[in-house]
């Protein structure tokens, strides 16, 4: 499955967050490099629709979609030159499909900041600079070979690749990540895929705030502006760690007391899933209600293939009711009677929340 790498400076709350995410009770330690081995956790994607559907269908169990989080060792200045755990850090991050930066915004005299004081903007720049430098190194190494190949083969693709790599180099030299700067520079990141550039991955940001800052709209707006167009999630990692110890109802009460409807962890997983370019469709019956993971833009046969390759090969059609229609009508039979059940063929592009039954030959 696809994974999100959690990165950030030491002591910003990465382990606290990761442990809360995976309900792993390994202790979060108060010193740099506490997380030396990357930890991988599989996390269920929260989706209130599953509960509702399982009631309609009388399902015996619910199976949510899952995704992976990898807790990657803390980055420090000079990581791109092998400082700290530099090389290991870069290798781990290269394997992740998206990057979640945890940025410290909480104040706590008992928790040292590697650079002396709490400054979210500076920290984001420190991390991005290391990732940008690593990408520039990758490009400097690859470019002579790519240029030579393009010259000898004179193929269009090779030339387009060299062109894209040179444009990427320019963006990076200006101190901009490819995620933030590629579109404006007219670079198609698909073309650059084979270089496995770090800053070409989708980014999202978690700001780890003090409890009393959670409702501070002015601060949130300022932090959001620092990272746009990336998604920003605001939470207090310490509170998140406490919330998972509570029964659901008490947790919700506590959250609402802080003016929140959804826990930070839940937001992180939900938004992270979208950042990976993924969406779900749903199946439901007496045995189970289940969310299946597909990439955004997947066709109906591709969606069927996630259940079984035979379903894709033998795909005939899919009977689809949207989740909202199904809930409004109360059952598939009523949805059919109301003309809300659609028969879709092999060119149908799946939509989020489609409740599906596939028809296929075996
Ligand atoms: P990492 O090095 O980024 O993995 O950071 P840790 O998760 O190990 O956290 C470092 C220290 O900061 C620990 O003592 C945590 O208890 C503390 N910490 C983490 N999140 C918060 C927070 O939101 N508020 C406060 N006050 N302390 C936190």
Automatic annotation (TrEMBL):
Record: residues binding ATP: 11-16
Annotated TGS domain residues: 277-360
Top-level taxon: Bacteria
Alphabetical list of Pfam families matching this protein: MMR_HSR1, YchF-GTPase_C
Domain OBG-type G: 2-255
Swiss-Prot/TrEMBL keywords: ATP-binding, Magnesium, Metal-binding, Nucleotide-binding
Magnesium as UniProt keyword: yes
Required co-factors: Mg(2+)
Stretches assigned to coiled coil: none
Similarity comment text for this entry: Belongs to the TRAFAC class OBG-HflX-like GTPase superfamily. OBG GTPase family. YchF/OLA1 subfamily.
Function of the molecule: ATPase that binds to both the 70S ribosome and the 50S ribosomal subunit in a nucleotide-independent manner.
Protein name: Ribosome-binding ATPase YchF
